[in-house]
Specification:
Layout (H helix, E strand, L loop, with lengths): L2 H40 L4 H36 L1 H5 L1
Helix pairs in contact: 1-2
Length: 89
């Protein structure tokens, strides 16, 4: 195995991870920002007001993008398994 092959595999793995995490985290960040602005404007300091909407949006993002996330993971895994003979031999 050459260092270049290992770096390519690592780069691909990081790209897949970043894509998958972004799909889950970004909607929660946007909702958290909206709730924070609302709390600052109204001086409401309730912790559950910021937590519950982010939780719901994150769960919705997982429900909506779940199929795509699993398919992306499976495609990456299949690609890695298919590359085993090239990397080892």
């Amino acid at each position: 195995m050459t260092p270049e092959a290992l770096i390519d595999i690592f780069r691909e793995a990081l790209a897949v991870i970043v894509m998958m995490v972004t799909v889950i985290v970004v909607p929660g960040l946007i909702v958290g920002l909206i709730v924070a602005v609302f709390q600052a404007a109204t001086s409401i300091n309730e912790q559950t007001l910021s937590f519950l909407p982010r939780l719901i949006v994150t769960l919705l993002a997982l429900m909506i993008a779940g199929h795509w996330l699993v398919r992306t993971m499976m495609d990456f895994f299949i690609e890695m398994v298919n590359q085993i003979p090239q990397v080892v031999g």
